[in-house]
Write the structure tokens for this entry.
Amino acid sequence: MINSPIDRVSFRGYSFFVKRDDLLDYDLSGNKARKLYHYIQNYNNQKMIISYGGVQSNLMYSLSALAKRLGIRFIYYSKILPSYLKDNPTSNYLGAINNGMELIEIPHSEWDEYIQSLKQQNFEDCIFVKQGGLQKEAEYGLKILACEIDEYAIQNDLEDVGLFLPSGTGATALYLQKHTKHKVYTTHCVGDSEYLKSQFLECESDDSIFPTILSLDKKYHFGNLYKEHFEMYHSLLNDTNIEFDLLYDPIGWACVMKHIDSLPKNMIYIHCGGLIGNSSMIDRYRQKFLKK
Ligand SMILES: *Cc1c(COP(=O)(O)O)cnc(C)c1O
């Protein structure tokens, strides 16, 4: 993996640094590349990758790219696909199918039980990745990210540095905080702050090394469409010339702007990639807000 660049941008009158992990690689980009790096470096002739979760998930796409790179099978369990997606595959789902993903659909009513039993199996000779990649193996690549950032801060004489990234499972923020000497701030894009903390606790029992969770006043339901998110996406693109993701980053940036006065002077926003998923989100936004 090559070290990704750090850009200086200005947004709404404030200056920021952006760690461009979206540029790491087209297929294995963003924090998913960091979270999966362990499996590339420590590949041990496992025969297949097995995982489960949402059918437009960024992680699912990245796993399909990983399987292709390693030359092995990728089995993915999801709930029954909606027919519009089956008929017109798009974005992460389309990319994963093209990479050879073998999808197994589980009826809604059997899902919980099915996944419980899946987690209890002993997958010898396989790489088993939990939903969202919330597991110890993610630490390996995130330690490297932490080193790159700490090194950058030293080389550029930056003091009063803070890092920010939005969380889904929280694995990225957690392991980054464990290894960087700077303070990591995050926000919950899935569930509330208690839920995010419970996710941290699944990986680490020492809560003194947890990232700092910031919140917005409004609650968002993950994956739903909000006009202000689409506006934030465009305004970021306009001001910074960087395309950000539509699921996590509008919440992330809204949170940074809300708390800007109490954050460190030099904020480094970690761009976690996810741009392949934008095409289906943009279609949905256009349908909802532009055509009527
Ligand atoms: C997956 C993802 C996140 C969240 O990462 P977690 O480690 O699950 O918290 C944030 N931003 C983007 C673009 C992602 O794809």
Notes: The mean pLDDT is 96. The longest helix spans residues 139-155. The longest strand covers residues 14-20. The pocket of pyridoxal-5'-phosphate is lined by residues 30-31, 58, 132, 166-173, 245, 248, 272-274 (CB under 6 Å).
